[in-house]
TrEMBL record:
NCBIfam families: ATPase-IIB_Ca, ATPase_P-type. Keywords: ATP-binding, Calcium, Calcium transport, Calmodulin-binding, Cell membrane, Ion transport, Magnesium, Membrane, Metal-binding, Nucleotide-binding, Phosphoprotein, Translocase, Transmembrane, Transmembrane helix, Transport. GO terms for molecular function: ATP binding; ATP hydrolysis activity; calmodulin binding; metal ion binding; P-type calcium transporter activity; PDZ domain binding. Residues 49-123 form the Cation-transporting P-type ATPase N-terminal domain. It is an enzyme of class 7 (translocase). The gene is LOC109881588. One of its GO terms (cellular component) is postsynaptic density membrane. Residues 1114-1149 have a biased composition (Polar residues). PANTHER family: CATION TRANSPORTING ATPASE, PLASMA MEMBRANE CALCIUM-TRANSPORTING ATPASE 2. This is Calcium-transporting ATPase.
């Protein structure tokens, strides 16, 4: 079916292309190339031979040269005929769709309904002018001086504020989406690829590659287009992204030359002819199918839902979650947005929001019930009024008013600003982190980084500059501490050395002259090889003529470098028909395979095992202790006849002759030691994981400050590490791991699997009470698994391979370790911003809910009206989240230990602040509510009838309330009990403008808000008093800061409470990686209890029956089996902690009773 869809799609999209291709002057059409690319292995080879003769034939048809590439004058034409290398992105959601999504919020829907009912009823006039009298208090004052006309205002105002909230939310989502797209396109633009054009190798953005280009591929590349291999060395490709097969596929120009876009080069190098780009490539076809398939699926889903009738739908509810979960998993995998379980912060916040929401719901329900009951009792019981039909609308109007008050309580209680605050804070941080060279790919990584307790860093390029320079060497039995003068070496040794280095390195590695005057020469390609080529230049020789003499295609066989071999070898055919192989690699590995060594005259002499040991002691270890990486260069000659079996690697890479050992230095980046000290101060352990030898690694670790002489730490290599953590069977044991990792600081000569094992071991460890949060840096393809496993993976933007970038969460655009410290700072800042916002938000919540609740119960009317509450909600949610979430980070953030995963969100200091400020505000508000009219000598606003004009009394309460929030917002800037709340306030212009802006709008609302906001203008004196009471918040804040936490015992309990609930549940949920929501968990618990109850009753009945009828033994057995099946049900439904239940019940089953009486 897939093929059919493809060809249909193409018949539609490219119907006119096939004819035009040949007119375009190319000898092959898009469809022919597509058919070719669907073949694999030998089929493809046969097809190429049949259709085009050979690869050169195909190149001619595509008007390109296999060695020189395109000339570059017909690029636009190629794009026209074969398409561009772009896959059109999926359409973003429109603003209206986002508005529609924002409207789905339950609280908003409740408000809309209430507002509409209120609107409808305000236009309803009860028939008969004088029936008002008979309806009693209900109608009193309702019709005063045309006030009824203004009844609609409240409903309209609520609707208006709903619109505001929706627009703000939608706009936020929209800008977030836009930012994300910008980020994506930036990541895409950064991917460049090496292409041969006009015989020059150039770097091109992936989007500029066209069909007919000759692309150079090497280890670590992510292939940007489909192509056919022209020439390859030891090429192995990971095609799992397309085929799902995890084994690496060997590619060969003669056996299987097909290379597909989106696959990773795991080993080797080569050149390919690009045959399909963009939507015509294999990845493109899959994307277009996904894009084309979506609308159809959705239609089907909708139909299905319609078919289910109500009852069935109800029954389906709990079951759906399991299937839904799987679907979502698949969706997520497709979208690849949520890489890991929900982030720590989001988990904590969701939990908190649910708890607060539940509390709010209960409060609002109680408020409504009390109001309705009070009204009913007062009217119909105490005053014994009959229920008159013509009065019904008026009663209903009262009930709607009560309902609106209830909803208002709920609206204020539900912290819908939380997700907003998180989004704003993260989006703001991500934007700013861009400036600090952190390109964040997954939003939550930024916040997780604040909790990091361990960083496992690569050495090369991250801690060091990744500019390799040869500084010492051992040639012809002499150890030179610096690079010798070429005259000191014999011509023979020098020739072999220069040839070995020039030919046995990737031809893409070069040293180019410096771009700036007086700058260092540019190193292109593999840095270690650059160091060796630098040695050739230091010996006053040039590598380029040697390479020109033997171009890449003349190399007979190449064994490319990989993490298993740790060496690279190249075989060339000499003029007399014999072969010579040059080899280079990690010195201890290559030296093991050497049986001879060149002496001072440049002649091979025997190299015995004891010479090797001496060499290691006298040459390699001293070099390594100076922090040098040692590379051994060797060669071996083979006879031309019989030709050796090249595939038999072990025999070939043996009996070598050592030429020299080079010590290459990679200096530590100047800013690293300081960054590491800052990490250690912040409670983060830095570990170095490197492929270098242990002495080099230790020397660099001391230079960086990862280890200090005299400390108790471990520096071990991969071999020793595996010996310590694996049992006899070779399996990793967590308890052995736990003995190693706490002290481990340097892991040398490590393989990619060791890195992954270490990261996994630290994450899974239960040694500390807090689960460790691990960040990992990596640049190679082999670091992919460790980057994926880590909580936060950092890939190197410059030296990193595409595979590493793909697996990471954050890309360091300058490859610098000190940027990681910046990421930690921003991460902690996000966490603190959320805490600041919570502290502010919860104070307002507590006060507003209590005021609305008690006010409603005592005076039958909330002192804060619905519209006023919505305005308060707007300042405390949207504006406050903007103001508090955009605080810039300070160095002080790095002076404390990480929070860890299971620390409650609300610390004891915060609880103290919330309760303290809550008490102050409640005292003020209630004093104003009940004795305010005497203090200010004004009319009381209590017990006002329906639709009465706004009172000065209630306006003062509203105004004071808002001003107290404003000044408390300044208090909320500090959450660790600091005294100076104004510290650094002007560094945050957003905060200042929001505080002043809110104050200005508040003045406008009070003075000119009138009926919709239930306000009357106040004079200057009353404004003065309101402001004075607001300013009291700042003074009171200082009072609270003086009370030590230790005095308030119950606070610790408050923190603990959330913690206890959080821990077991969260861990279980995360382990299964399903996010069961709380309702569902309650539901399960309910089911378990229900089954348990049933079971007990059943068992008791059984026992009684058995005693009654001592005769029928069969009956007992039958019953027993039913009991056991019941027990099994319990076991299935319940979670593992209830499993013991079935065992506990079984002894009471009749088996234990005498068989017959």
């Amino acid at each position: 079916m897939g093929d059919l869809t493809n060809s249909d799609y193409y018949a539609k999209n490219q119907g006119n292309d096939v004819s035009s291709n040949h007119e375009g002057g190319f000898g092959v059409s898009v469809m022919e190339l597509r058919d070719l690319m669907e073949l694999r292995g030998s089929e493809a080879v046969v097809k190429i031979q049949e259709e085009y003769g050979d690869m050169d034939g195909l190149c001619q048809r595509l008007k390109t040269s296999p060695t020189e590439g395109l000339t570059g004058d017909d690029l636009d034409k190629r794009k026209e005929v074969y398409g561009e290398n772009l896959i059109p992105p999926k359409k973003p959601k429109t603003f209206l769709q986002l508005v529609w999504e924002a409207l789905q919020d339950v609280t908003l829907i409740i408000l809309e309904v209430a507002a509409l009912i209120s609107l409808g009823l305000s236009f309803y006039q009860p028939p008969g002018g004088d029936s008002g009298e008979s309806c009693g208090t209900a109608a009193a004052g309702a019709e005063d001086e045309g006030e009824a006309e203004a009844g609609w205002i409240e409903g309209a105002a609520i609707l208006l504020s709903v619109v505001c909230v929706v627009l703000v939310t939608a706009f936020n989502d929209w800008s977030k989406e836009k930012q994300f797209r910008g980020l994506q396109s930036r990541i895409e633009q950064e991917q460049k690829f090496q292409v041969v054009r006009g015989a020059q190798v150039i770097q091109l953005p992936v989007a500029d590659i066209v069909v007919g280009d000759i692309a150079q591929i090497k280890y670590g590349d992510l292939l940007p287009a489909d192509g056919v291999l022209i020439q390859g060395n030891d090429l192995k490709i990971d095609e799992s992204s397309l085929t799902g097969e995890s084994d690496h596929v060997k590619k060969d120009a003669d056996k299987d030359p097909m290379l597909l876009s989106g696959t990773h080069v795991m080993e080797g190098s080569g050149r390919m002819l690009v045959t399909a780009v963009g939507v015509n490539s294999q990845t493109g076809i899959i994307f277009t199918l996904l894009g084309a398939g979506e609308p159809v699926e959705e239609e089907k889903k909708k139909e299905k839902v319609k078919k289910q009738d109500g009852a069935a739908a109800m029954e389906m509810q709990p079951l759906k979650s399991a299937e839904g979960g799987e679907m979502e998993e698949k969706e997520k995998k497709k979208a690849n947005i949520s890489k890991k379980e929900k982030s720590v912060l989001q988990g904590k916040l969701t939990k908190l929001a649910v708890q607060i929401g539940k509390a709010g719901l209960v409060m609002s329900a109680i408020t409504v019930i009390i109001l309705v009951l009070y009204f009913a009792v007062d009217n119909f019981v105490l005053q014994k009024r009959p229920w008159l039909t013509e009065c019904t609308p008026i009663y209903v109007q009262y009930f709607v008013k009560f309902f609106i008050i209830g909803v208002t309580v709920l609206v204020v209680a539900v912290p819908e600003g939380l997700p907003l605050a998180v989004t704003i804070s993260l989006a703001y941080s991500v934007k700013k982190m861009m400036k600090d060279n952190n390109l964040v790919r997954h939003l939550d990584a930024c916040e997780t980084m604040g909790n990091a307790t361990a960083i496992c860093s690569d050495k090369t390029g991250t801690l060091t500059t990744n500019r390799m320079t040869a500084v010492a060497c051992y040639v012809g039995d002499v150890h030179y501490k610096e690079i010798p003068d070429p005259g000191a070496l014999t011509a023979k040794s020098l020739d072999i050395l220069v040839n070995a280095i020039s030919l046995n390195s990737a031809y893409t590695t070069k040293i180019l002259p410096a771009t700036k005057e007086g700058g260092l020469p540019m190193q292109v390609g593999n840095k270690t090889e650059c160091g060796l080529l630098g040695l050739v230049l230091d010996l006053k020789r040039d590598y380029q003529p040697i390479r020109n003499q033997i171009p890449e295609e003349k190399l007979y066989k190449v064994y490319t470098f990989n993490s298993a071999r740790k060496s690279m070898s190249t075989v060339i055919k000499l003029s007399d028909g014999s072969f010579r192989m040059y080899s280079k690699g990690a010195s201890e590995i290559v030296l093991k395979k050497c049986t001879k060594i060149l002496n001072q005259e440049g002649e091979p002499r025997v190299f015995r095992p004891r010479d090797k040991d001496e060499m290691v002691k006298k040459v390699i270890e001293p070099m390594a202790c100076d922090g040098l990486r040692t590379i051994c260069v060797a060669y071996r000659d083979f006879p031309g006849d019989p030709e050796p079996l090249w595939d038999n690697e072990n025999d070939i890479l043996n009996e070598l002759t050592a030429v020299c050992v080079v010590g290459i230095e990679d200096p530590v980046r100047p800013e690293v030691p300081d960054a590491i000290i800052r990490c250690q101060r912040a409670g983060i352990t830095v570990r170095m994981v490197t492929g270098d030898n242990i002495n080099t690694a230790r020397a660099i670790a001391i230079k960086c400050g990862i280890i200090h002489p005299g400390e108790d730490f471990l520096c071990i290599d991969g071999k020793e590490f595996n010996r310590r953590i694996r049992n006899e069977k070779g399996e990793v044991e967590q308890e052995r791991m736990d003995k190693v990792w706490p002290k481990l600081r340097v892991l040398a000569r490590s393989s990619p699997t060791d890195k992954h094992t270490l990261v996994k071991g630290i994450i899974d460890s239960c040694l500390t009470d807090q689960r460790q949060v691990v960040a990992v840096t990596g640049d190679g393809t082999n670091d992919g698994p460790a980057l994926k496993k880590a909580d936060v993976g950092f890939a190197m933007g410059i030296a990193g391979t595409d595979v590493a970038k793909e697996a990471s969460d954050i890309i360091l655009t300058d490859d610098n370790f000190s940027s990681i410290v910046k990421a930690v700072m921003w991460g902690r800042n996000v966490y603190d911003s959320i805490s600041k916002f919570l502290q502010f938000q919860l104070t307002v919540n507590v006060v507003a809910v209590i005021v609305a609740f008690t006010g409603a119960c005592i005076t039958q009317d909330s002192p804060l009206k619905a519209v006023q509450m919505l305005w308060v909600n707007l300042i405390m949610d949207t504006f406050a989240s903007l103001a508090l979430a955009t605080e810039p980070p300070t160095e002080a953030l790095l002076m404390r230990k990480p929070y860890g995963r299971n620390k409650p969100l609300i610390s004891s200091t915060m609880t103290k602040n919330i309760l303290g400020h809550g008490i102050y505000q409640l005292v003020i508000i209630f004093s104003l509510l009940f004795v305010g009219e005497q203090i200010f000598d004004i009319d009381s606003g209590r017990h006002a009838p329906l639709h009465s004009p706004p009172s000065e009394h209630y306006t003062i309460i509203f105004n004071t309330f808002v001003l107290m929030q404003l000044f408390n917002e300044i208090n909320a800037r500090k959450i660790h009990g600091e005294r100076n709340v104004f510290d650094g306030i002007f560094r945050n212009p957003i905060f200042c403008s929001i505080v002043f802006g809110t104050f200005a709008i508040q003045i406008v609302i009070v003075q000119f808000g009138g009926k919709p906001f239930s306000c009357t203008p106040l004079d200057l004196e009353k404004w003065g008093w309101c402001t004075f009471l607001g300013l009291g918040e700042l003074v009171w804040g200082q009072v609270i800061a003086t009370i030590p936490n230790s005095k308030l015992r119950f606070l610790r309990g408050a923190g603990q409470l959330t913690k206890k609930n959080e821990m077991p549940g969260d861990e279980d949920m995360n382990e299964d990686n399903e996010e069961i929501d709380h309702a569902e968990r309650e539901l399960r618990r309910g089911q378990v209890l229900w089954f348990r109850g049933l079971n007990r009753i059943q068992t008791q009945i059984d026992v009684v029956n058995t005693f009654k009828s001592g005769s029928s033994y069969q009956g007992q057995l039958r019953r027993q089996s039913s009991t056991t099946s019941q027990n099994q049900d319990v076991t299935n439904v319940s979670s593992p902690s209830h499993v013991s239940l079935s065992n506990a019940l079984s002894p009471t089953s009749p088996a234990g009773l005498p068989p017959t009486a």
